[in-house]
C-alpha cells in the first residue's frame, strides 16, 4: 500500500515540451528548426546576381522549350534572299530566305538538349569514379585516380576534335557528340568529389553506419551523397556551360551533330554564308549573344552555389545574416520603446 495516488497528466508530452523549452531558453533550437536550418544552409542566398542569373537561364530555357511551337518551320526556303529584320521576319532571313528567328528557337532547343545530356552524364561519371573510388579505397581508388589523372592531362578540345573527326558524318548524331563531350569532361569533377568524399568518409556518423552493418550503397546514398549535393550541383552547372561552349566550337568547325540544329550550327552556316563580310549581323549576333547570356546566367548561379561550398564565403554569409538579425533586433527595440 502507498499514499501516492495515480495522476492523469501526460508526463511524457510535458517532459518533451519542457526539454524543448529548456533548449530554446538555453539558446538552442527545437529539432524542427534545426532541420530547417540545415536545409537552409544547402540553399544559396537569394542575391541580386543570383536572381539575375535565374531570370536569364529561365528565360532562355523557356524560349528553347516554347519557341519552336510558336515559330514556323526553320527549313522553309523563300525567294526573298538575305533581308534584314522586319515586321514579317523579326530577325531577318538568311541567303536562302530562311527565317532566322525560327532557326534560333530550334537551335536553342538543340543546344539545351546537348548541354543537359552532357551535364547529367558527366556528373554521373564523376560521381561513380570520384565518390565510389574514395569510399571503397584500396586498388579501386588507385585505379580510378589514375584514370582521372590520365583524362586530366589530355587536352579536352583537341581530343574531342580528333574523336569527332574519326566518326562518320552520318553517324555523328546528338547523342554521339554528347557522349564524346561527357567522356572528356568528367575528370576534374571526379577529383573534387574524391577529395570531399575522403573528408566525409572519416566522420563519426559514417563510421557509425559502417560499424552498424549498413551496406556500402546505402552509406553512400544516405550518409555521403546528401552532403555532396552542393558540389554535385556546381559540377553539373559547370558541365552544362562547358558542353554548350564545346559543342558550339565543334559545330563551328563543321564537326557537330549532323542531325540536330544547334547555336553552333547557326554560326557555322552564317560563317559559310559570308554573313560578316555582307554585314548580315542579324544572322550571327543572336546565336552568339544567346550563348554568352546563357553562359553568364549559369556562371552567376554557380558563383552562388560556391557560397555554400567555400567555407570562407559561407562564413561571410553567416556573419552577414547575424548582422541583419542584430539590426532587426535593434530596430524592434527602438520601436517598442516608442
TrEMBL record:
Gene3D superfamilies: MetI-like (1.10.3720.10)
Record keywords, A-Z: Cell membrane, Membrane, Transmembrane, Transmembrane helix, Transport
CDD domains hit by this protein: TM_PBP2
Superkingdom assignment: Bacteria
Chain segments annotated as transmembrane: 43-66, 114-136, 143-167, 173-193, 236-260, 280-305
Domain ABC transmembrane type-1 stretches: 112-302
Compartments, record wording: Cell membrane
InterPro entries membership: BP-dependent_transpt_permease, MetI-like, MetI-like_sf
Main location, first listed in the record: membrane
Topology with respect to the bilayer: Multi-pass membrane protein
Family, per entry: Belongs to the binding-protein-dependent transport system permease family.
Protein name: ABC transmembrane type-1 domain-containing protein
Amino acid at each position: 500500500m502507498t499514499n501516492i495516488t495515480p495522476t492523469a497528466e501526460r508526463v511524457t508530452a510535458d517532459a518533451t515540451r519542457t526539454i524543448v523549452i529548456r533548449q530554446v531558453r538555453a539558446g538552442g533550437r527545437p529539432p524542427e528548426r534545426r532541420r530547417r536550418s540545415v536545409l537552409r544552409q544547402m540553399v544559396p542566398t537569394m542575391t541580386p546576381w543570383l536572381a539575375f542569373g535565374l531570370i536569364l537561364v529561365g528565360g532562355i530555357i523557356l524560349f528553347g522549350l516554347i519557341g519552336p511551337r510558336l515559330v514556323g518551320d526553320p527549313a522553309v526556303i523563300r525567294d526573298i534572299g538575305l533581308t534584314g529584320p522586319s515586321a514579317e521576319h523579326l530577325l531577318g532571313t538568311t541567303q536562302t530566305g530562311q527565317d532566322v528567328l525560327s532557326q534560333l528557337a530550334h537551335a536553342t532547343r538543340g543546344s539545351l538538349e546537348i548541354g543537359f545530356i552532357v551535364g547529367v552524364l558527366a556528373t554521373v561519371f564523376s560521381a561513380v569514379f570520384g565518390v565510389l573510388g574514395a569510399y571503397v579505397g584500396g586498388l579501386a581508388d588507385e585505379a580510378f585516380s589514375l584514370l582521372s589523372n590520365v583524362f586530366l592531362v589530355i587536352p579536352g578540345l583537341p581530343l574531342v576534335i580528333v574523336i569527332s573527326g574519326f566518326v562518320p558524318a552520318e553517324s555523328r548524331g546528338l547523342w554521339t557528340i554528347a557522349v564524346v563531350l561527357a567522356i572528356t569532361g568528367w575528370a576534374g569533377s571526379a577529383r573534387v568529389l574524391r577529395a570531399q568524399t575522403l573528408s566525409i568518409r572519416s566522420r563519426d556518423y559514417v563510421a557509425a553506419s559502417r560499424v552498424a552493418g549498413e551496406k556500402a550503397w546505402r552509406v553512400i546514398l544516405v550518409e555521403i551523397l546528401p552532403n555532396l549535393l552542393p558540389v554535385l550541383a556546381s559540377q553539373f552547372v559547370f558541365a552544362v556551360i562547358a558542353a554548350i561552349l564545346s559543342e558550339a566550337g565543334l559545330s563551328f568547325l563543321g564537326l557537330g551533330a549532323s542531325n540536330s540544329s544547334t547555336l553552333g550550327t547557326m554560326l557555322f552556316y552564317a560563317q559559310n554564308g559570308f554573313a560578316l563580310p555582307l554585314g548580315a549581323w542579324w544572322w550571327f549576333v543572336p546565336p552568339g549573344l544567346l550563348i554568352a547570356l546563357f553562359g553568364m546566367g549559369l556562371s552567376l548561379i554557380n558563383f552562388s552555389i560556391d557560397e555554400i561550398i567555400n567555407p570562407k564565403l559561407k562564413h561571410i554569409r553567416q556573419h552577414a545574416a547575424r548582422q541583419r538579425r542584430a539590426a532587426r533586433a535593434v530596430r524592434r527595440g527602438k520601436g517598442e520603446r516608442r
